């Protein structure tokens, strides 16, 4: 069985950690590492919502879609195509970055045909398809529709309050209080915008789109709990008692938009009344008991790494570090102080930084650019779940570096002067103590005095 993956990784580390713990949606959902997945051999229905996989991501996040070929057919090259939301224009090939270093490209395709879009922008919203040049495997409908969420609808300090957890009975209460009440309001409200939608034959319903079940966890006596996420969605239906005006802009919009995320920016722009009613609705994590769960062995504290290294960098330096004993087929994981550095995702540990400074590229090489004290810490890498290397990165400022260098050389110079002074004083002391043993050399007359004869002159009387 093959799966189609779609990732939406948020720039906020808190949001990333929260999403890793939960999963969701009927044909889509978050799996480990924030991956949306879609079963290839699923039953394709005639519903418009099955035309593509709906994925929501915040602005400036990273999106990753995987395209695979049919196992029963000969492998063929695939191309990614883009089309606008309403499909008014023909699809065109996705424009990829051309830099040889893929980490510098905002949009690129990896060796396994995965499409990566970094720092997603408003213009990236639309439908993405992956198939051959002649339309091979289009019948499988491996299409993705990207919609941006309004990050302002998620309180930065209270993100977890937008997720409720419980069993099926608790979800029924959640559905009645949150979903059914809003659906009923849309059906009976006398607000002009909602009345106009009903007159056009548009019926809006708030639903939970369920994701796949996660693994059986929290094992006690071979019994555990599994969860799946119910994403809040605005689903449209057409009133069969109303004759649709296909020239109407609203009908055209909803004809190509069968479903939208509750926190969608597009919904906020086009229908603010609807968006204000649904954008703060929480999502739901359904829990269910499961059996035959596998206990995850806890890693022993203090488990040794195969390699231990320490690097001292001057502030502002750049570095690239590879994990030892790894190759292209290895599964490599980098961490910084227990934070996972995901492949192809740039990060920054500075609050006021506008550009990412730390990144692990598609070849699992760790890059640190313009290093500062914020990037200082313990880095570890794991190869196929083996503790491979523990690395401590120390950053020193330029002024401190030169001061330490000067003090280090002053130490060398002081040692030399001290040693020289000691030798000189020792020589003086030894000479003074043994001064009686020195021989006294006789005085030697000069050659000039020896060459001059002595003449005595007597006075004449």
UniProtKB/TrEMBL annotation:
- Does Glycoprotein show up as a keyword for this record? yes
| InterPro entries linked | FAM187A/B, Ig-like_dom, Ig-like_dom_sf, Ig-like_fold, Ig_sub2, Immunoglobulin_dom
Q: Is this entry keyworded Transmembrane helix?
A: yes
Swiss-Prot/TrEMBL keywords = Glycoprotein, Membrane, Signal, Transmembrane, Transmembrane helix
Domain (Ig-like): give its ranges: 67-143, 282-397
One GO cellular component term, please give it: membrane
Its topology with respect to the membrane?
Single-pass type I membrane protein
Pfam families membership: ig
Q: Please report which protein family the annotation says this sequence is part of.
A: Belongs to the FAM187 family.
* Identification of the protein by name: Ig-like domain-containing protein
State the organism of origin: Vespula squamosa (Southern yellow jacket)
